[in-house]
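ugh ok so i messed up the first submission bc i forgot one of the chains. this is the corrected input, ALL of the components this time, i swear. 282 residues overall. if the numbers dont match what u have on ur side tell me asap before i send this to the collaborators (the ones from the other lab, u know who)
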Amino acid sequence: MNFPSEALQLPAIWFYVFAALVIVAALAVVLARNIVHCAMYLAVTFIAVAGIYVMLESDFLAMVQILIYVGAVTVLILFAIMLSRKYTGADFQARNRQSIPAMLVIIIFLVVIGRVIACTWGGFKAGQTSAWGVSNVKAIGVSLLRDYVLPFEVASVLLLVALVGAIIIARKDNDRDERG
Amino acid sequence: MVPLEHVLLLAAALFGIGLYGVLVRRNMIGILMGIELMLNAANINLVAFSRYLPHGGVAGQIFVVFTITVAAAEAAVALAIVLAIYRQRGSVKMDDVHIMKW
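and heres the new structure output, hopefully the right one now
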């Protein structure tokens, strides 16, 4: 048994289940009125996208998605919502007045992308699996430390810079508040 | 087996929904959520190509590892900016942050 897809044998119906969940949850994110509800639906969207990754045979990415997006980014967004809400007033209107032009733009975008997809990949054979021969985690690990070691190191510097930058930007500036 | 076109259409639809969120929502954090949805759509595209096209190997998934890293760093910095703006102006409404608009 060389390919991971032979061992998994997931029925294709699950892809459509997860896809429907992604679309419904994403619509709930952009249409909900309460911003906390939006953050919860965003977490559901991330989990459904992790299910899509499992259907696309990248189980390591599915776990990374849940760890980082649901575990860190969603919690960060919830903290930011908590620190930026006034509890004495009503929440303002969720959407501005650009709904109709935005829908027009998005419909045009989807039509163009649909044409590109239909014209370019019309003759693609379904069911062609990629020949990794090893498990997903090992393939990614070997690639990260052999072919892509430079972006890997740069990513750690990027995270350090983002960490220091976020702390400095969000810090309470006590001296300036006292000086007025 | 799911055809490649269906996965690409799913990613395009998710991108469109995220774009709608960015264009239409008033809350700055709501706009950030739309940006995260768009990034996830791009990631789905990358993983789909990594799986369906046999010549690239695992490069698409490596790309997604870095995209997720950059998205997390960007979410942290963007939320720090939102908090700083909230502290200055007392509101996270996008309509109140228009001093650089014509």
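quick check: The first helix of chain B runs from residue 4 to 24. that seems consistent at least. The two ends of chain B are 52 Å apart (CA to CA).
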